[in-house]
Amino acid sequence: MQDAWVWLILSLDATLRVSTPLIFAALAGLFSERSGIVDIGLEGKMLVGAFAAATVASVSGSVWLGLLMAIVASVGFALLHGFACITHRGNQVVSGVAINILASGLTVVLGLAWFHQGGSTPALSNDQRFTAINLPFAQQVADIPGLGLLYSELLSGHNILVYLAFALVPLSWWVLYRTRFGLRLRAVGENPKAVDTAGISVAGLRYRAVMIAGVLCGFAGAYLANAQNAQFIRDMTAGQGFMALAALIFAKWRPWPILFACLLFGFLDAVAVRLQGVSLPGIGLVPVQLIEALPYLLTVILLAGFIGRANPPKAVGLPYVKER
Amino acid sequence: MKAATLNKFLSIFLLPVLNILTAFIFTTLLFLVIGIDPWEAAKILVQGAFGYEEGIGYTLYYTTNFIFTGLAVAIAFHAGLFNIGGEGQAYIGGLGVSLIALGLGSFLPPLLLLPLAILAAAAFGAAWAAIPAYLQAYRGSHIVITTIMFNFLAASLMVYLLVNIFSEAGQGMPASRAFPESASLWTWQTFMAKWGVEFAASPLNVSLILALICCAAVWVFLWKTRWGYELRTVGANPEAAIYAGINPKRVIILAMLISGALAGFVSVNELLGVQHRLVLGFNTGYGFAGIAVALMGRNHPLGVMLAALLFGALYQGGAELAFEIPSVTRDVVVVIQGLIILFSGALEFMYRAPLQRWLLSFAREV
Q: What is the pTM of this model?
């Protein structure tokens, strides 16, 4: 019993760590897509963020400067996406694909030219990373049976970005549903014509939305390189941007369900790692690939309309033409 | 000159050239940033891709893959669909090839086995595209998202099958056992030798001919058959298509089946032509490159062929570049690919409005 409890707590602890970049990226997608701009480029923005964070942190020695440059780089790519999709009304999916491919190539080419380590950046020391924050009394209560572990392992001992990601969920909800900006942002994703008629700039709102997405992807990237790992490794996002996109759809483009979708997908990932090569009684060897594929499978089933209906913002993917 | 002729000249010739040029200008800038002489790099690239017979062989071998995935993306585009799933469809096509080659390889003569394996590649690729197609046509799920998900599903499925079913014990990399001798396509060297012509050894094989046949077939299908007409009509205006008595749902399924089958052919070139066994990730990158190829080739089979050749040259030349200059890898080609998708795809309209204005004012004066 005690073992199972420890196993559960440790799995949940891993879940939080794996879910964090998903939450950042899915919220990024939320802002972008709620304003009507499809964001396939979450993956690429995370990747340039991670590269900038690791590069700047290792050169300057400052983890905060690294985070700042991660945000700058990611917002730069977000603006490129905006320039193509909003200003020039290009195909939003094509633009996203371009950003992903560009990011995947550019980070390796520059990394190799600057550091000569096969596309990775030098390993970061602990003061160039976001390290664990121990909440008060975590050590003292750790030995209390049951709840002690819950506090000391699960709640305490994460880095600041983990706590930030979770705090951003209610904040995003508040911004989207309780502020004038959020109302307009949601409106521009449903009916840009109406927003335009009200005398509010459609392009301005959408640019702000993709820039918010850029900032959030920057956080996700910095987390990958400077918190979860201690360097940039080529293609280190490894599909997490698409996983976040799946979570966004699975959550039907709403902030709180995004949190649960990311936690669910993160939990599946954490469990898959733990079950590698483990033989369970009655089931035999667990096919780890099946557990890893479950997020995508669930999203497809949801999209097919078998578990509720996923209604995307009405104007998503459509370039706005003011006058003909 | 008439405004219409000018417009045609603009969109068929001037804009594509300008877009590609812009992509290459940024590539040049990148070379300067990483401290490499762009002129020197271009020379190594061209020399590596076309300078000697083996290089040409490699270039055309890559071209073959790009033709398949480029056509796959292009035909879906004509129906108004964006198939990002070429990557997964090519992978699953490889499953079909391997099942036939490993299962029937010891019973059937090559003349029966090879066509069957090629058909299996098409059938499996098409089947993997059929599910997203069905979901788009009948359940309204967006095909971009479902094909992305299906890429990941294909990757997980193939890793599972390779590790648990196909792979033999004691191998480092997960791979199946080798296909029997009867399941390999002629290399270009063997093929040319039949005609008494010598050609250097390279991975290039007769799949290239299949690719060229596909180009011609897609052209005939799109512009010379009723089905092709219906497909293009649905792509241009689904509402109008319904009034014309066309069933867009069926067209969506048909377009995706053909698209998936074309992507599946990548496995013919890779597995029957080169690897002769099922290997992990033989499809990597070709599906996404197909998007660049289709965009650059403006979704026309001839354009796809030329764009595929350019990408084949970039891939082979890029490998040469990595060999000659140690601080560069083939990832430079990935950047070029991204730039081409950006400028010929997402930003294709950037030059259009100002150029149109300029050309029209010119037309009025004349």
A: 0.90
Complex-level ipTM: 0.90
Nearest chain A residue to B160 by CA distance is A289
pLDDT for the residue B262: 97
CATH class entry, domain A2-128+142-303: mainly alpha
From residue A68, give the alpha-carbon distance in Å to each of A53, A64, A124, B42, B323.
8, 6, 17, 36, 36
Nearest-angstrom CA–CA distance, A266 and A58: 28
pLDDT digits (tens, 9 = 90+) for A133-166: 887 777 777 777 777 777 777 788 888 999 999 9
Domain ranges of chain B: 63-311
DSSP per residue, B256-288:
HHHHHHHHHTHHIIIIIIIISS-BTTTTTTHHH
Distance between CA atoms of residues A63 and A318, nearest Å: 39
Under DSSP, the state recorded for B182 is G
Segment B234-242 shows an average pLDDT of 92
The backbone torsions φ and ψ at residue B149, rounded to the nearest 5 degrees and listed phi first, read -60, -40
Mean pLDDT of A270-288: 75
| A279 DSSP assignment | E
CB contact under 8 A, B149 and A85: no
Stated as kind and residue range, the H or E segment containing B195 is: none
Provide the pLDDT for residue A278: 73
Fold of B63-311: ABC transporter involved in vitamin B12 uptake, BtuC (1.10.3470)
Q: Which residue of A has its CA nearest to B144?
A: A93
Q: How far is CA B344 from the centre of its chain?
A: 16
Residue with tokens 């280190």: A236
The SS3 assignment for A280 reads strand
Please indicate whether, in this complex, the C-beta atoms of A303 and B341 are within 8 angstroms of each other.
no
Contact B346 A108 (CB under 8 A): no
DSSP B90-102: HHHHHHHHHHHHH
> pLDDT digit string (tens) for A171-197?
999 999 999 999 999 999 999 999 999
Among all residues of chain A, which has the CA nearest to that of B153? A293
- Who among A98, A110, A242 is closest to B152 (CB)? A242
- Please name the amino acid found at residue B6: L
Nearest Cβ partner of B146 from A101, A113, A303?
A303
Query: Would you call B349 and A305 a contact, using CB atoms and an 8 Å cutoff?
Result: no
Q: Does A1 have pLDDT greater than 70?
A: no
Question: In the block, which residue shows the tokens 């360097």?
Answer: A231
In single-letter form, the type of residue at position A121 comes to T
Instruction: Give the C-alpha separation, A168 to A161, whole Å.
Output: 10
| pLDDT at B170 (0 to 100) | 64
pLDDT digits (tens, 9 = 90+) for A210-254: 999 999 999 999 999 999 999 999 999 988 999 999 999 889 899
CA–CA separation, B358 and B354 (whole Å): 6
Residues of chain A found within 8 Å of residue B341, distances taken between Cβ atoms: 94, 97-98, 101
Q: How many residues does chain A have?
A: 324
Helix, strand and coil content of chain B, in percent to the nearest 5, comes to 75, 0, 20
Strand boundaries in chain A, DSSP class E: 279-280, 284-285
Kindly compute the dihedral angle of the four CA atoms of residues B331, B334, B339, B345, in this order, to the nearest 10 degrees.
-170
β strands within chain B, DSSP E: none
Which value, to the nearest 10 degrees, does the dihedral of the CA atoms of residues A87, A89, A92, A98 take? Answer: -70
In chain A, domain spans? 2-128+142-303
